[in-house]
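Here is a complete protein record:
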Amino acid sequence: MSLIPRSSGRPLRVALIGYAFMGRAHSNAWRQVGAYFDVPAFERAVLVGRDAAGVQAAAAELGWAETATDWREVIARPDIDVVDICTPGHLHAEVAIAALAAGKHVLVEKPLANTLDEAERMAAAAVEARETSGAIAMVGFNYRRVPALALARQLVAAGRVGQIRQMRASYLQDWLVDADAPMTWRLRKETAGSGALGDLASHAVDQLLALSGASVVGVSAQTATFTPERRGENGLERVTVDDAAWATLTFDTGARASLEVSRTATGRKNALQIEIYGDRGAIRFDLERLDELQFLDLSDEITTQGFRTILVTEPEHPYLDAWWPQGHILGWEHSFVHEVRDLLTAIENADAITPDFGDGLAVQRVLDAIERSAAQGGAIVVSNVPDEVVGAAGRQGANAPA
């Protein structure tokens, strides 16, 4: 099916599937983006959810023109151009593949899928759709759009840290510390795929791949579930995903990385921390201070050498020429606005987008290797990513403003 040509002059029409936590974050981005960035005209056409009353209330609150309860009918509509998927992971593959087959541009929240097989099918469908209809398929690793991390990618790409030797990534939260916290879909393998691994490690692994431009070739890992049962609507229910995971990653460049993720790290609310160490410099980042980037330049005089804290709020920094005067910080929600900006710009210019489904597949291969290694007691597992499916992870800062 061919996409409606941009020369038709009518605005792009967007359908959002899902209106819970991520649906609200994406809704806010669609509502804000046109007020701050020069993007092609679009309309927030349809909000889709299973509960008719719930989705109608959400649409009125979030600013969507109409509602629907059947995503298949919405995807089949010729007046829908973009499908934004914010469902639990077990629905990603079915909805995204159907939308791409219908010639729609697709944005799907991370992780790309619940399983490696699903991710492979989605990546293949995205390649076919791009060739047949020009459809763009993007996976929502929103932290690539945090200005400080976009600046980090620019510094690495410019050679400011030199050859990367080692990296560290951790993503720690504590919302499952309490053993009495109730059961949710995020704790069931059939709906979530995995626990902290897919929820948090997907972000951390994507950052390691995007920053280094390298591929993971070996993994040694462990996982743990500290609270094996939680109370659901019908009594105690077994938790079938991990609470935490640890891994050592080997890259094809010879670099090494340590990875730690947890949803039971007491006192840590949303702490994504990235450290990059090269032979010319180093970078450190903490999401709980997301407007700051720490950078060390080894060429500085030894008497003044050390990590400098860069407040990433200058108009010369990525994305920030559209926002506030210097020193006026941004927040977590702005990364989604930048994500939608980049998607709309790519659609307008018929450009490639990063991260695409190939990038999502590269992350999924690492997550799969972590699970396999943990199941084998931490044995080293090979995680080869063929060049033809890696996607654009190595294209430093693609789609991000200079």
Summary: The radius of gyration is 21 Å. The chain is about 30% helix and 25% strand.
